[in-house]
Amino acid sequence: MGLALMLVLTACAGASSAEGERLWQALAEKAKQFAGFAPAHVESHAEVFSGDGEVRGTVTEVWTLRGWKKGEPDYEVQRQETGKPDINIKFRVTAQGTPFFAASQGQLRFQRVIPEALADRCFFRFEFAATQEDKAKGKTMNLEGVAWVDAKSGAPWKVLYRVPNPEKPIKKWELTLVFPSDPQAPPLPEQVTLHMEGQMLLWKRSVVLTQRLKEWTAAD
């Protein structure tokens, strides 16, 4: 116990919430510069599970950016299915889907900022709430989130979003974003994982979708 406490104190010695807020503001300003970017290559893999945990089917897709249409990325998609994945999954992360961009637009509310030691490294842990609009459906989704930013380099490490009270039939919705360790890289995720669970009467399904995002690029 004493050794663990000493490691925590050593890793985060001198770290202050004010310094964390400064790093966050820098990320928010940087995120605005890349708001119009999209990944040139996406590797997507989804597994659909029944209520008893059995894999019903999988969906593997490879997206290749072939151009832009009215400012939106246009992808060529290669798709392969196995089994019976009886859920149609449509999901795409944009450069504007990070909490750093949301903060730059005033769409995020901080709850607290604290230093946290993980694996002998010091991170700032940001707890926040955000509102995301779905213009196509005319709905607003309330999100809770946690983001970890390296206290030394200022690089984002990971973000966890969750919907505290999802609409039926969804019972659970969690999204994890993982970022490159390079502090010079844009604050854009290199991998995302979406975990959803739903139930309608006796019908139960859960989905785990992982996407690897490569070569973020700007519109032509």
Helix content: 10-25%
**What Rg, in angstroms, do the CA atoms define?**
19 Å
Report the average pLDDT across residues: 88
**Main sheet record:** 10 strands, antiparallel
End-to-end Cα distance: 55 Å
Instruction: Tally the helices.
Output: 3
Structural class: alpha+beta
Q: What's the assembly state of these chains?
A: single chain
Tally of strands: 10
Encode the helix/strand succession as letters: HHEEEHEEEEEEE
Judging from the principal axes of the Cα atoms, what is the shape?
A: globular
**β-sheet strand percentage:** over 45%
Low-confidence stretches: 1-9
Largest sheet strand order: 3-2-1-10-9-8-7-6-5-4
Structural write-up:
This protein is an alpha+beta fold and 220 residues long. The chain contains 3 helices and 10 strands, in the order ααβββαβββββββ. The protein has helices spanning 2-11, 17-33, 99-104; strands at residues 38-50, 55-69, 72-83, 108-118, 121-134, 139-150, 156-162, 170-178, 191-200, 203-217. β6 and β7 (156-162) form a beta hairpin. It is globular and about 55 Å long. Residues 1-9 have low confidence and may be disordered.
Sequence-ordered SSE layout with sheet pairings:
Layout: H1 2-11, H2 17-33, E1 38-50, E2 55-69, E3 72-83, H3 99-104, E4 108-118, E5 121-134, E6 139-150, E7 156-162, E8 170-178, E9 191-200, E10 203-217
Antiparallel strand pairs: 1-2, 1-10, 2-3, 4-5, 5-6, 6-7, 7-8, 8-9, 9-10
Give a quick summary of the entry.
This protein is of the alpha+beta class and about 220 residues long.
Keywords:
10 strands, single chain, alpha+beta, disordered N terminus, 220 residues, globular
